[in-house]
Amino acid sequence: MQALGFILRRVLLLVVVLFAVSVLTFAIVNVLPGDVATAVLGDMATPDQVLAVRKTLGLDQPLAERYLRWLLGVLQGDFGRSLQHGQPIGPILMGRLGNSAILGLITLAIAAPLAVALGVMAALKPGGVLDRVIGGIAVGAYALPEYVIGLFGILAFSIWWPVLPGSSLMDPNENPLARPEALILPIGVLITGMLAFISQVTRASMIQVMGSAYIRTAVLKGVPRWRVVMKHAMPNLLPPTIAEIGMYFGYVIGGLVVVETLFSYAGLGQLVTNAVSYRDVPVIQAVVLIVAAAYGIGNLLADVAALLMNPRLRS
Amino acid sequence: MSGVALPAHRRIVLPRLGVADLAGAAIVLGMVMLILAGASLSPYSATAFNPMHSLEAPSLAFPFGTDEFGRDVFSRVLAGARPTLLLAVGAAALGVALGTVTGLTAGYRQGPVDETIMRFMDALMSFPGLILAMLVVVMLGPAPINVVAAIALVFWPRSARLVRSIVVDLAHREFIEAARSRGERASFILFRELLPNVLPIIVVDFSLRVTSGVLLAASLAYLGIGVTPPTPAWGLMVRDGQQFIEIAPWLVVFPCLAIALASIGTVLLGERLRHRLALPGGGRAQ
Amino acid sequence: MTVMSKIEPPVLAVRDLSISYGPLQAVRGVSFSIAPGEAMGLIGESGSGKSSVAYAVMRYIKGQASGEVHVAGQDVMALSEQALGKLRGRTAAMVYQDPMSALNPAIKVGEQIAEAIRLHGRIGKALAWKRGVALLERVHLPRPAEIAHRYPHQLSGGQQQRVVIAMALACDPQLLIMDEPTTGLDVTTEAVILDLVNELRRETGVAVLFISHNMGVVAQVCDRVGVLYAGQLIEEGTTEQVLRQPRHPYTVALMRAMPAIDGPRRRLAAIPGRLPDLRSPPPGCIFTPRCAMATAECESRMPDLANSSGGGHRSRCHYRDEVALRLPPEPLVAEVQLVEARQERPRLQIIAVSKQFRARPALPFMRGPAPVRAVDDVTLDIPPGRTLAVVGESGSGKSTLARCVAGLIVPEDGAIRLENEVLDPLVQKRGRAAQQAVQFVFQNPDAALNPHWTVAEIVGRPMRLYGGQGEGKALRHRIIEQLEAVKLGERYLDLYPREMSGGEKQRVSIARAFAGRPRLVICDEPTSALDISVQAAILNELLALQRENGTSYLFISHDLGVVRHVAHEVAIMRHGRIVESGPPAAVFGDPREEYTRNLIAAIPTLERREAAPALLTA
Fold it and tell me: Does a structural domain hold residue B41?
């Protein structure tokens, strides 16, 4: 009952936040000092051109009305038309979303358990050799932008020792899983970034858990060490760590934008950077909204998973 | 024992690195000097074309080689230090300042004020940082000040959340109850009672934000957002050099190294700061 | 079979145990032993090293240990990790101070007990669970089969501690180590737990090492008692010997500092000074600097822990047989008469105050659980210069009442009247004069002072805020004066809270409360976080300040002994209501309500009680 209440509250909260996100997105695009038409055309545009674009985008109508029309459209899957391609944005978006999801989910599926395992190992002997090595790698991985790691990866594995393709260039409608070797480098880059965060967060939580009184109880009960870690520490470590991993979805998404651009992978990130260079505002707006929604839902799922693992809230 | 310990999660805890701490300080010191000395250190102009020396490999004359227009990569990398670090520090300062005031207010007031502020912060946080910064810079136009504003907007809710979480905990402490029962004004409690207790965390948070600022600014530049071509920004140099990666890897390698050095330097310095601030007075055994 | 000594070997033998944490010598040369079935208590204040000794028996300490520890004949210091794992939980088991944090929040309590059983005996899961349920029944938990399926947070504090005890008993250990097992529990719960320990001792014959700071609690359980001071065992003997005829001045001082609920009313005697620096302990007797009967010999030569003339009663004092003669006698005080005070108009009136707390509903738009009546129609008054003590167990609403008076919590109903003025329920809306008139002293000295302020800033702030006490030099003079009033001096001005002991911090807290020259001071458990010897000093300080300034106190406490020493009037609170009130002599001497009688009966005194009052269930 309590858990159900929590989930319901959490879903309500997500709806509120998504509404706020739509307002913010719309506000940034339409209310900030920069003018959409100018942003689309660049500074060199003549007043006539600006006027024409304002008309096609419906910018001559009142703000509130435009927002409502846009929101209603979005709720029905109509994101408007791309300025660059002249096509409806919805279908373009869906294919790209799938491709990005493949990249992101594979990354999470590998990085999350691996990072937690590394964090736990580091925490078992703080200051030990393993801890220092993992910590050192984490500093590096944290401090380097994805494209720097990615470019060094390309130099190493597709130029100096050419074993992997340095680009994942493909047709947006092609199934990316058809060429798994093209996914290895992008996913590798994303995993490296994730590892840094999650392993260090896990390490900190694990040190705290291992220092708690109930772990002392277990040790003084005569529980062997591996069992203390697996049976007594893990159930207390995992729920907050999973919720924490949820917070890093946004980081994965940011990483996707860079990595997709670097490897020419046809996902949402590449779509949005292309849209940026063509100043295709309706597309940018749509991608931002979708990404924020995906982030919100991912966060929600992580919270619910954490909740279901936590007996305190479950019962 | 006393003071405020940093919340154990919500932060990256790196083990002590000893010598590495000093390296961090040295790197940052070097960067600061680069900013102060600026262009006077560069052997060549960072922007002038020199077609005679197009795409030359690193040599004594051009230690980092030259790009397709014959510009000296070393001079360009040097020139890129100042905008990157100034952007990062400016954005971190603005974002953390906004976050501190917001977090203090929300955490102390609680109730509907807190709810409203934090739901707005949640909404801001629902945008992945890079995406939000992209959107804002695209709409405001490419200018350094807009990049600072955009990155600060990314930091704002994150700092606010951090500060709020500590203030919510502190607000229930008895010394705050003591101040309230004495009849202190809210502003006194916020800035005289609470702020000194939050300050060490703010300083550490600021140092972390400088690092992410460097990374975000470099990523934006790499995506071609916020800077326009002749400007020697590291990210932009990588972006432009990428097409020559097979024949002239130095175009990519040296700016990448510069970014790596800058962010690792700030990370290490931040870690050192955290170690110093997180252990006030020294705890006794037992 | 060879002929063997008839004397049974001890279950626990500690010889010359020393423990250090870096340069800090926490425990020095402690030796004692516990025979099968015997219960030995270790008494000590904070910093005495008592917990270090307890955990050293299990070889679970972070510091460096030397000396010998034998448990059931096994040399604990020399055991392999594997053998140590077998000893822990099977031969020797532990019960902890804070049961809530000692139990794993993510595992059902039945499983936590069953695990202990399965670890040390090869039996199946189902059988282990059944035995676990039987153990829960053994510790008198109602509906044990159902409780086994619960998680720790679903149990009360007393129930949690029974679970911990059941878990400790899982493998029929020969030695039970109990580290402050009732600290933090209500007195009535404490009484029931102590009874349970006695019952289990009778039935299982388990030996007990009982760590506590509370002499009354130790007297309820233990056959023998050792007193630890600054890492040394300074006295040891039977409970009767040590607590009735102490042979060490420290033990005597502790007894005199303890506010008792029975016997003649005494003036509490604080122990002057503070614990010596354990990084470089003095060469002579460690208690010398604080001892009322110390001589030159005490300073130069460390006394042995040797038998006094009483037989089997050891004391580490050169004058162990003359302690009673050499120490000055204990002053008695007369019962306070409140007759004349009754005529005066009350300084504070609490009129029909009620406060409810509402929990959040489980689902939005659903009806929440019934609100809790934290304070329920309470009417009380305090005459000028007098102390009203409100006594109750945790959850009785006494702290909520105090915060309603202070204006930190707004009650739904009722009024607070200070002399002629009805105060606004919210302190921020009260006038400066009213804010100045009511000051607060908090329970936890660590949390009550802003860690980033110096003492001068802390004590000076009310003076600046309310004004009228000068500026610059004059103000500084006032601050020093105020500090001297609580026996702190000028040298404290620039210290930060972390540089002071708990007692010093509480003095600063009191100085701050009095800096505004209040008419009423609310003391919310002002000494419950302090050691007994420090508590005595703080209580004496509060009494002296009241005499000097004519301040009224609203004194919140759970400790009837403390209340008896400070209050002119007592109100017993339970479930938000005042059960009974009157002068302490009347309430304690001849309680009218059954709850009050039970509360008084539950207090552990030096007299061993036969059984806890029947009504009490925890």
Answer: no
Nearest to C476 by CA among C509, C449, C515, C450: C515
The two three-digit tokens of residue B151, written as one number = 């990155």
pTM over 0.90: no
Mark yes or no for CB contact B197/C450 under 8 Å: yes
**Cβ separation of C151 and A312 shorter than 8 Å?**
yes
How is domain A96-314 classified at the CATH fold level?
Answer: MetI-like fold (1.10.3720)
Residue C165 has pLDDT above 90, yes or no: yes
DSSP class of residue C427 equals G
Q: Where in chain A is the domain with CATH 1.10.3720.10?
A: 96-314
Q: Which of A147, A205, A209 to probe the B interface (max B CBs under 10 A)?
A: A147
Cα–Cα distance between C612 and B45 in angstroms, integer?
91
Compute the distance between CA of residue C574 and CA of residue C394 in angstroms, rounded to an integer.
9
Chain C CB within 8 Å of residue A1 CB: yes
Task: Compare CB distances from C440 to B173, B181, B184 and report the shortest one's residue.
Answer: B181
| C102–A221 C-beta distance less than 8 A | no
> Any chain A CB within 8 A of the CB of C366?
yes
Radius of gyration of chain C from its Cα atoms, rounded to whole angstroms: 26
Residues of chain A under the 50 pLDDT cut: none
The predicted structure's pLDDT at residue B37: 66
pLDDT tens per residue, range C476-522: 999 999 999 998 988 999 999 988 988 999 999 999 999 989 999 99
DSSP A98-130: HHHHHHHHHHHHHHHHHHHHHHHHHHHSTTSHH
Query: How far apart, in whole angstroms, are the C-alpha atoms of residue C430 and residue B158?
Result: 37
Task: Tell me the per-residue pLDDT of C340-382, one tens digit each, with 9 for 90 and over.
Answer: 455 578 999 999 999 998 876 655 566 667 788 899 999 999 9
Q: Is the dihedral of CA C343, C344, C345, C347 positive or negative?
A: negative
Q: Is the pLDDT of residue B2 over 70?
A: no
The domains found in chain C, sorted by start residue, are 12-91+173-326 (3.40.50.300), 100-172 (no CATH), 343-450+514-602 (3.40.50.300)
Give the count of domains, chain B.
1
Domain housing B146: 69-276
Question: A224, C85: Cβ pair inside 8 Å?
Answer: yes
* Strands of C213-323, DSSP E: 224-229, 232-238, 306-307, 314-315
Helix (H, G, I), strand (E, B) or coil at A175: coil
Residue A283: enclosing H or E segment and its boundaries?
helix A281-309
CB pairs under 8 A between A and B: 187
- Note whether residue B151 is domain-resident: yes
In a domain, B30, yes or no: no
Q: Compute the distance between CA of residue A222 and CA of residue C120 in angstroms, rounded to an integer.
A: 8
CB contact under 8 A, C88 and A1: no
Q: Does B2 touch chain C (CB under 8 A)?
A: yes
CA-to-CA distance for C589 and C2, rounded, in angstroms? 61
Instruction: Flag whether B258 is in a domain.
Output: yes
> Which domain CATH number covers B174?
1.10.3720.10
**Tell me, what's the pLDDT at C78?**
92
